[in-house]
Amino acid sequence: MEILIQVKNATVEIDGKTILKPISYRFENEKVYGIIGPNGAGKSTLLKIISGFLTPTSGEIYFHGKVLTEPDKRIAVVWQKPYMFQTNVFQNVAYGLKVRGVPRKERKEQVLEILKQFQIDHLIDQKAKSLSGGEMAKVAIARAIITSPQVLILDEPTASLDPQNVLEIEQLILKLKNQFQMTVIMVTHNMFQAKRIADETLFLHSGYLIESQATRRMFENPIHELTKKFILGEVHF
Ligand SMILES: Nc1ncnc2c1ncn2[C@@H]1O[C@H](COP(=O)(O)OP(=O)(O)OP(=O)(O)O)[C@@H](O)[C@H]1O
Q1: Nearest CA residue ID for atom 9, ligand 1
Q2: Where does the ABC transporter domain lie (predicted)?
Q3: The whole model's pTM is what?
Q4: Atom of ligand 1 nearest to the CA of 156
Q5: CATH assignment of 3-231?
């Protein structure tokens, strides 16, 4: 397995407060990673440093063996509550192609192809602001992957979606791994979601990476007492 992103002794301090304690981890290609943990554990902060949006206070993030100092177009991110441009679905999804100067005809073809893959091609002319939560989540992911990144980072991709939409987004994430050979790193509040689709799970608590394991092992046989408690629902937020 190829190592895509390596976190080496990375810490984050903001206003004198340590938000991430030294973390080391390797993200490999073509895997789904689930990051779980209670509120304030540092999950979103970890996403910010591995996507180059925040520089660690100490330690380094390597992407393909080179220190990552700024966002890289090969790493796409969908933040919580993604912002939709006040245009239609086509223009939202085509945005990344437009800024790269892809001609309109090709843009149309590529957007249509991806919307078909996501089974939302019927929405192409609809105003993005008028979409349902589930549709918006799909459009946000389509917009993020239109430029074929290697890594897709998702912060709570299914927060506040109904079970049917949760299932559809989960299927889509697996498709990105299996058919598009992408690595997906997602923060989820729902540990059962990690259990369903993540190959590897990371458990964060109070800024510490408490445990990281193959997902099945983590859920069947957690090593750390805190992980056990969290999985059993005994760590309260
Ligand atoms: N820019 C900031 N300035 C000050 N404190 C911050 C900042 N960003 C994060 N924090 C603090 O760092 C801690 C970790 O935040 P983070 O958002 O990474 O946690 P999280 O695990 O994603 O939480 P949640 O599940 O609530 O989204 C929290 O206590 C938060 O208040």
Answers
A1: 45
A2: 5-231
A3: 0.95
A4: 27
A5: 3.40.50.300
